[in-house]
Amino acid sequence: MSKEFKRPDGRKHNELRPMKAKVGVIPNADGSAMFSFGDTVAIAAVYGPRQLHPQHMQDPSKGILRCNYDLLSFSVYDRKKPGPSRRSNEISKVTEWALLPAVYLEAFPNTVVDVQIYILQADAGTRTAGINAASMALAHAGIPMKDLVCSVAVGKNDKNLIVDLTKEEEDYDLGEGATDFAIAKLANSDDITLMQMDGKAQPKVIPDLINLSVEACSTIYEIQKKALKSVIAEGE
Amino acid sequence: MSTNINGSGEASEENYSTEESGSAKRRIVVPGETIIEGEDYLPGEGTRREGLKIVSSKFGLAEEAGRLIKIISIFGAFVPRKGNVVVGRVTDLNYAGWVVDIDCAAAGFLPIEESPRFINRNEMDQYLKIGDVIAAKIWTVKTKGPDLTLNGKGLGKLEGGFIFRIIPSRVPRVIGKEGSMVGLIKEKTNCSITVGQNGWVWIKGQSIDEEIKARKAIEIISEKVHVEGLTEKMESWFEEK
Predict the structure, then answer these.
(1) Does the predicted TM-score (pTM) go above 0.90?
(2) Secondary structure letter of residue A145 according to DSSP
(3) Which CATH number fits domain B12-73: 3.40.50.300, 3.40.47.10, 1.10.10.10, 2.40.50.100?
(4) Mutate which of B72, B75, B220 to test chain A, going by most A C-beta atoms within 10 A?
(5) Is the peptide bond before B168 cis (omega within 30 degrees of 0)?
(6) Which one, of A45, A35, A41, lies nearest residue A72 by Cα?
(7) Residues ≥6 apart with Cβ < 8 Å to A204
(8) Looking at this predicted complex, what is its ipTM?
(9) Scanning every residue of chain B, which has its alpha carbon at the shortest distance from the alpha carbon of A186?
């Protein structure tokens, strides 16, 4: 069935958009990175560990992670009103949960690690691009980590399973319509740290979707690794 | 699975002295990457054991020193440790001492008793006032933050000159093996230089040109992350200038 299905940009069903990653894009941050899937571009900056205010939020047993995700006003077709919204608050929170299992903050009590994620250009999959950038930025900031976090959106157009949806594919409305299934996982284990679904999918296709995302995540991991390693090699 | 991260209080200058001998093998690793497999190895700083594997917990250079595997980090914020000499700026003074910004998560505190001479509590600002820059040593790290002391060689108020910031994990490189690198810069530029482990560098020289030259040299060193024989390269850099 998926043989005949043509994706609008001519990609194969398991093919990701061209990806770009760069580490160290923000000199004033302790760690920073850029990650892009095709026309979706995310930048992430990490500050800290640093003093946490207000004081009542401090945890004497470990440091806390604080994420902020936002679309820049020019990143979408209709200007996005700047400032926090229901959507960005939710994505900030799920990003925090997606990254938290990967970081060790026990060594930094009473402190906070701030992660700022901004979307420069949005063409679907912004939260996954943001998580990929943030995980590289955390590593770049020298935060002890269990693993890098890789994230990708898989989904369905009618009955066809596809990887890394564009905005056009997210808005597909024929047959069963479109399903968007965002996943984040730790690169070297099967631990899934984020799973969100928008749309409908039969329970029997969920394992297939997860398998597709695991395959895509290994490609993303290689790109993240290469970007991190090249930032050291450049100093020579 | 063990999730043990070793945070030994080892002075980072030592990391580099073993490294600059050139015998140890180093390679770049990212968090979660397997460095080596085998029962014979011990997980050191920034690494952990997962079954038979030694896995990295940090982004940096993995170094194999005998059986011990450790990570030399080259990015990130300053984490205070006992014995570190830091350069800081006085931000507040209270009845018990001075509060010093040392560019880390918690502010440093310098108790009045830890100054090298007797200070009248009513006239504390005659010795150190807000905005003064000091070189101090961390003598304990408490949960509230590090405590500082001025008792020691080369510590005290830094008068004149200017300060700037480099990435804290590059400081051992700037200091060099037994202070060889900073000694070279001092000799070539006739500047007084204090490099704090927190990445703040204080420079005071005879002329502005010499000060700028010293700053440039330090910035070049902190950018060359893992170049062998950097001291020789810097010597020829000074020749060219």
Answers:
(1) no
(2) B
(3) 2.40.50.100
(4) B75
(5) no
(6) A41
(7) none
(8) 0.88
(9) B32
